[in-house]
């Protein structure tokens, strides 16, 4: 790959600035209004299924307990009516009505359990907390932002390059990323922007950086990207 002399770095290839981001990031929001009892810290790592946010849900838990108790009572009524029907002391209608009440009670239990599950925000994958938008003991509204998280592993990088490089760019082109504090990792170009910015005459590129655990790289880091000569 060739480039104007002013763009050629000591390593022999053209260089540009890049910023790392998680290959998969997600903004987690509240699915219910309520008071936060516990929330993960920024920089905290987690595994898929871990509880990242827990709400104070005493009322909802009590509602679920009441629903389960009502379901148990309705089931006992069905069993009792069936025994009475067997000895001709209850009719078919009595049994049908008891079964209908049990079905209703089971539906209420499922509804209460579904609301109870909203009391916990669980991790969608193994990852790390990038940003915390709420604090313990705060009360939040429905759909309030709680945490920004990223999947652990491969990192993406956004690179702003001169449009004059476009003829030499292609997916798979290798580069080395050097963070501002000295960390280095290899990567490859994955996507080339569809349009050139008319004001700056630059092009947005996307790449993939490997070696994140060993290099100690983290989302949000900026650094120099040096493309390897082809």
Features:
230 residues, alpha+beta, six-stranded antiparallel barrel, Helix Hairpins, 37% strand, 3 domains, 14 strands, OB fold (Dihydrolipoamide Acetyltransferase, E2P), four-stranded antiparallel beta sheet, elongated, disordered N terminus, Elongation Factor Tu (Ef-tu), domain 3
Q: How is this fold's topology laid out?
A:
Elements: E1 15-22, E2 25-29, E3 34-39, E4 45-46, E5 51-55, H1 58-86, H2 92-117, E6 120-122, E7 127-132, E8 139-140, E9 145-151, E10 155-162, E11 174-179, E12 184-196, E13 202-209, H3 212-215, E14 222-227
Antiparallel strand pairs: 1-10, 1-14, 2-9, 3-5, 3-8, 4-7, 5-6, 7-9, 10-13, 11-12, 11-14, 12-13
Mean pLDDT: 87
The helix-and-strand class reads alpha+beta
Rg: 29 Å
**Strand percent estimate:** 35-45%
Topology, number of strands = 14
Give the CATH H-level superfamily of the largest domain.
Efflux pump adaptor protein, beta barrel domain
Number of helices: 3
Overall CATH architecture of the largest domain: Beta Barrel
The biggest beta sheet is recorded as: 6 strands, antiparallel, barrel
The helix content, as a percent range, equals 25-40%
The CATH top-level class label of the largest domain: Mainly Beta
SSE series: EEEEEHHEEEEEEEEHE
Q: Tell me the strand order in the biggest sheet.
A: 1-10-13-12-11-14
